[in-house]
Design brief:
The complex is a heterodimer. Chain A has two domains: 190 residues, Thiamin diphosphate (ThDP)-binding fold, Pyr/PP domains (Rossmann fold), CATH 3.40.50.970; 110 residues, 3-Layer(aba) Sandwich (Rossmann fold). By secondary structure, chain A is α/β, with parallel strands linked by helices. Chain A contains 13 helices and 16 strands. In chain B, α2 links the parallel β1 and β2. Chain B starts with 23 loop residues before the first helix and ends with a helix. Classes of the chains: A alpha/beta, B alpha/beta. β10 of chain A pairs parallel with β2 of chain B, so a sheet runs across the interface.
């Protein structure tokens, strides 16, 4: 292990995202300037051409995700980065990537909204947009790091999940995580687990581009490799051709949802702090999870049995884990930089097994540990 | 009867969804004949489309095909071409698809001069949604959303493409099929962003609103309204307004985007990680 070339660097969240993307094999980036994600585009513009990758600044956010999907079908692992207003614009082609099962990663460094909102302030206002922003029934994977180191590791995870499940993956940063600097240990390339899309093993004339393997995921031939087939945003059959057959429609829609829902064990990542004996649990993600971790320490000093469930995977939502927690504790508090989005999922998953309360802040300021502690004390007094 | 066309289509997809008399089939034939003349490897051709009647064309041809979102075919194609410059990338769009919702992508693809061929089937109407006017519907003509006559000034796609930076720009019609095939062939072969606008007929949606209810009426109208560049110059300003000028309008050489980017890569690799 000592021989592995690891570097320790002081990195900004956005820079760590660039490093993680490159380590996981991303070789194409298309984007459009937007605060607070622009450093990702800048890093990609500088680094990608040095290693045989390609960068293009497109005319808008819509074109950026379109180019990313195009590059992916031509064989390049691809990523784009944006923030709220751009994430809204990307929803159309996010849906296209979902229905056509083309891997790609969309980074959303969340800022206050709606609309132009608060370009330089953090927010978690896009949790539900990440889940339901594009129209129609679909499943989605969204990850949310809370440290710069996690930005690196979860970017790698995001790229790997997109390749493994043939689906777009959303990486939800927030302005603070995107811009803060922390020590990051950059893994050596040979110790990074890199997952590549599964290629067809049959000859072209036997290839059904949307016929699932035993895991529900069709092997994917890149354009230009000798497999000629059709990709469409219309509901399609296993050959990729449009269909209006109710049975084919039903099985297609269910499959592209199930391929994610049936693999939640692989996809869901979380961390537990002091939950073993906890009677009060905090559930948080992103920069709020940092404050919540500190709150747990402060509460324990006061003798309060408080713990934290830090969510790194937001979608699919870790319902089972939350349900188990709800059976153990008396109270779950969900601090969020929005008016209460994730708390809705926590309420649903808790199934009335414990009390669930929201603590929200939408003034563009971070939630601090003391105020979460205050909320705990207030709830205890009730 | 099997023809060269059969070597390039997905026969299982036929009959197609286009209405009887639609010009899209004529364009499909012309594209296939042009590609056949060029003897391109089918495995290396990506044909990309957006949304609309014309965009269904990608379902019918035996290439690497992608029917994307409305107006967005060009940026999808840009990603494909960037990732794999060895692919021959052809984009087929309708008039609304290319010049309304996709207008921004069109001018920027031209500005980059990325090596793609953009074929715009201009039937001057939104056909699939039932006949609403498009940015290419001529002034005073009718659509379901212009029941009192269109007051908009239409785009001249040829001028737009030239001004935005394309390398090759031509206009043909579905009436002048031989000329059309040769214009498409030249565009396909051109390095850089090449554009062929094709004046086409939609008897169902455009014709019925504009007193040309039959295919023959529509094709006659296209024939009568089309003039060569030379004949155009002799027309009065009033006469010019209603005519379609056909032929080649631009054929220049300038470096395409993938070529320029490969120089960026060389430069970046020379400078190395120090930057």
């Amino acid at each position: 292990m000592n021989k592995l070339k690891r570097n320790v660097e002081l990195l900004q969240g956005n820079e760590a995202c660039v490093k993680g993307a490159i380590l996981s094999g991303v070789r194409f980036f298309a984007g459009y300037p937007i605060t607070p994600s622009s450093e990702i585009a800048e890093g990609m513009a500088r680094l990608l051409p040095q290693i045989g990758g390609k960068f293009v600044q497109m005319e808008d956010e819509i074109a950026s995700i379109a180019a990313v999907i195009g590059a992916s079908i031509a064989g390049f692992k691809s990523l784009t980065a944006t923030s709220g207003p751009g994430f809204s614009l990307k929803q159309e082609n996010l849906g296209f990537a979902i229905i056509s099962e083309i891997p790609c990663v969309i980074v959303n460094a969340q800022r206050g909204g709606p609309s132009t909102g608060l370009p330089t302030k953090p927010s978690q206002g896009d949790m539900m947009q990440a889940r339901w922003g594009t129209h129609g029934d679909h499943s989605i994977i969204a990850l949310a790091p809370s440290t710069v180191n996690e930005v690196l590791t979860l970017t790698i995870k995001a790229v790997n999940f997109s390749e493994k499940y043939r689906t777009p993956v959303i990486l939800l940063l927030d302005e603070v995580i995107a811009h803060m600097r922390e020590k990051v240990e950059i893994p050596a390339p040979e110790e990074v687990e890199v997952i590549n899309r599964k290629k067809p093993t049959v000859p072209p004339e036997e290839y059904f581009p949307f016929k699932p393997d035993q895991n529900g995921i069709p092997p994917m031939a890149n354009f230009g490799e000798g497999y000629r087939y059709h990709i469409t945003g219309l509901i399609h059959n296993q050959k990729g051709l449009p269909t209006s057959n109710p049975q084919e429609i039903d099985s297609f829609i269910r499959r592209i949802n199930n391929k994610i829902q049936e693999n939640v064990k692989d996809i869901i990542i979380y961390e537990k702090y002091f939950l073993d004996d906890a009677k009060i649990a905090l559930i948080a993600c992103g920069s709020v999870a940092r404050a919540a971790e500190r709150t747990v320490k402060l509460a324990r000093e006061e003798g309060l049995k408080v713990g934290l469930l830090k969510l790194l995977t937001i979608w699919p939502f870790p319902s089972e884990e939350v349900n188990r927690l709800a059976q153990q504790v008396d109270l779950i508090i969900v601090p969020e930089m929005n008016l209460g989005q994730m708390v809705l999922e926590v309420e649903r998953a808790s199934r009335g097994n414990c009390e669930v309360v929201s603590y929200s802040r939408v003034d563009g300021e971070l939630i601090n540990p003391i105020e979460i502690l205050g909320k705990i004390q207030e709830e205890i007094k009730k | 009867m099997k023809t060269v066309i059969n070597n390039y289509i997905r026969e299982e997809m036929f009959p197609n969804i286009w209405c009887p008399g639609c010009g899209n089939g004529i364009v499909l034939g012309a594209i296939i004949r042009a590609i056949d003349d060029l003897k391109w490897d089918k495995n290396k051709i990506a044909m990309i489309s957006g949304i609309g009647c014309s965009s269904r064309i990608t379902g019918y041809v035996d290439f690497c095909t992608m029917n994307t979102t409305h107006g967005r075919a060009l940026p999808f194609a840009t990603g494909i071409k960037m990732a794999n410059p060895n692919m021959k990338v052809v984009v087929v769009m309708g008039d609304g698809d290319c010049s309304a919702i996709g207008g921004n992508h069109f001018i920027h693809a031209a500005r980059r001069n990325i090596d793609l061929t953009a074929i715009i089937i201009n039937n001057m109407i939104y056909g699939m949604t039932g006949g609403q006017y498009s940015p290419l519907t001529p002034t005073k003509k009718f659509g379901t959303t212009a029941p009192y006559g269109n007051i908009d000034q239409s785009f001249d796609l040829v001028k737009l493409a030239k001004a935005a930076g394309a390398s090759y720009v031509a206009r043909g019609t579905v009436y002048h099929v031989r000329q059309l095939t040769s214009l498409i062939k030249k565009a396909l072969n051109k390095k850089g962003f090449s554009v062929v606008e094709i004046i086409s007929d939609c008897p169902i949606s455009y014709g019925k609103m504009n007193k040309m209810r039959t295919v023959v009426d529509m094709l006659k109208w296209i024939k009568d309204m089309s003039v060569s560049k030379k004949a155009w110059e002799d027309l009065s300003p009033e006469e010019k307004k209603e005519k379609f000028v056909i032929g080649e309008f631009l054929d220049i050489d300038r470096p395409d985007y993938t070529e320029l980017y490969s120089k960026v890569m060389e430069e970046a690799q020379k400078m190395g990680v120090s930057r």
